[in-house]
Amino acid sequence: MTLPLETSVGNAIAKYILEARSESTSEYVFLRTSAPYRKLSDCGSMDNILEKYVKSAGILRQPGDGKSFHALPRSMGTWMLESGVPLTTISQVLGHKEQDSAKQYLSMDYEKLVSCALDFQEIPLGKGIFE
Question: Where is the Tyr recombinase domain (predicted)?
């Protein structure tokens, strides 16, 4: 799958590689900031980096508030779903081979869900258990 890259994002990545990234022959774009300069090993590494910048920006963070690296796929998947993107495409973008794997990253829009609820006043009820 090929996804478009915003010009500003491409420029920021190029600037990082040319001006800030440690010298390395690694094929990976984002590397550890200390030697040995190799790829970031897991989501925890990215979460630590994000946490550093969240703190320096003065953003308050609570457990489970969605201000973590792990929350990014969930936010993106939910936004795509709300924009009408098919689940198969969302799964591919999130890097899942199985469509059902992406469902854990999708949030419900409870306001829209409530608007789908039936109004029981319009349903005629006969005598019996509901009276």
Answer: 1-118
**Rounded Cα–Cα distance for residues 131 and 126 (Å):** 8
> Which residue from 129, 67, 76 is spatially nearest to 107, judged by alpha carbons?
76
Residues 12, 20: contact at Cβ < 8 Å?
Answer: no
What φ, ψ does residue 53 adopt, rounded to 5°? -75, -30
Tokens representing 35? 């030697």
Q: Where are the beta strands (DSSP E) in the chain?
A: none
Q: Report the chain (131 residues): mean pLDDT per 10 consecutive residues.
A: 88 93 89 84 74 88 77 83 87 80 68 71 67 55
The angle subtended at Cα 55 by Cα 71 and Cα 10, nearest 5°, is: 60
Cβ-contact 103, 73 below 8 angstroms: no
Say what the pTM is: 0.54
Strand partners, 61: none
